[in-house]
Design goal:
Length: 168
Amino acid sequence: DDGVMGGKSESLHKTSDGNVLSFEGYINTDGGGFTSIRSVLPTNALNSRSKALRFHLKGDGKTYKMFLTNGIPSAGPRSPSPSWQADVLTTGEWQDVTIPLDSLQPSFGGPSRNLDHGELKFVASEMRQIGLMLSLRLANGNDNPKETFGEGIFPFSLEVKSIEVVEK
């Protein structure tokens, strides 16, 4: 959560009897404005044949981000490698969301660096962590609009039933 930078957002996660991951809590935009959950990817989960990730999920109508990283501990904006992100707009209903891996956008967190993102290359086999985040910013660095984020102090809720790798 944003407590790493002095924020006040709070989240919790649990798994139900039906193996549904529940990620919920409160965002507080006073001094922060993000919360995330991440997990180690199984060995060789992604490879050169991997084309997309398909999620079966239910959100609260907010726009979340899915991200992948190489798992090397980073120092946020000073990290030598980006996280690779895509927006996930939820509808309030159970839905299938497919994210093509070639649509992922590099992010170093914090203020955008003056980089030619063409220099950066996503390599699926190097990804070691997967995560979901609710943040003030979208994957492209633009503001997450109030209509798909919120303002002040507000609750959030995201449930994930499955994540599947889509290959060629």
